[in-house]
Amino acid sequence: MNDRTQAVLSQMVEQFKARHQHPPEKIVVAPLACLALAIKQSVAPLWQGIRVECRKIQETEATKERSAVKSLGIFILPEDRSGRLVACDLKT
After folding, report:
1. Phi and psi (nearest 5°) for 89?
2. What is the rounded average pLDDT of the residues 73-91?
3. pTM for the complete prediction?
4. 6-23 pLDDT, tens per residue?
5. Residues 57-62: contacts with CB within 8 Å, 24+ apart?
6. Which of 24, 47, 59, 76 suits a disulfide with 72, CB 3.0-4.6 Å?
7. Residue 40 burial by CB count (10 A; 0-12/13-18/19+): exposed, middle or buried?
8. 61: left (phi > 0), else alpha (psi -120 to 50), else beta?
9. What is the pLDDT of residues 65-80, one digit of tens each?
10. DSSP helix/strand/coil, 15
11. Which pairing describes strands 50-54 and 46-47: parallel, antiparallel, or unpaired?
12. Sign of the C-alpha dihedral, residues 69, 71, 72, 73?
């Protein structure tokens, strides 16, 4: 497992925990982000004990309402050619 990628995913989970005072119920990884993680051998069905799901993330799932947040979404912006992983809060 790539330590740098592991640190990035762990950091995203820790930021979620700090923002919401609880861990996410699940981590949803968009297919392109999942592919990037798979190439780096850094994707697993569980991450820090949290279920990981690979699927398309709908824009309507993203939220800024802290009370509605249940999951952590991870994706790559289509217009960002750097391949940088981005996190968002999901209400699903």
Report:
1. -90, 135
2. 86
3. 0.84
4. 567 888 899 999 999 999
5. 57/28, 57/30, 57/88, 57/90, 61/28, 61/90, 61/91, 61/92, 62/88, 62/89, 62/90, 62/91
6. 24
7. middle
8. alpha
9. 888 799 999 999 877 7
10. helix
11. antiparallel
12. negative
For residues 44 and 31, what is the distance between their CA atoms, to the nearest angstrom? 14
| DSSP single-letter state for residue 65 | -
pLDDT of 92 over the 90 cut:
no
Scan for tokens 């798979």, then name that residue: 38
Question: Where are the domains positioned within the chain?
Answer: 3-90
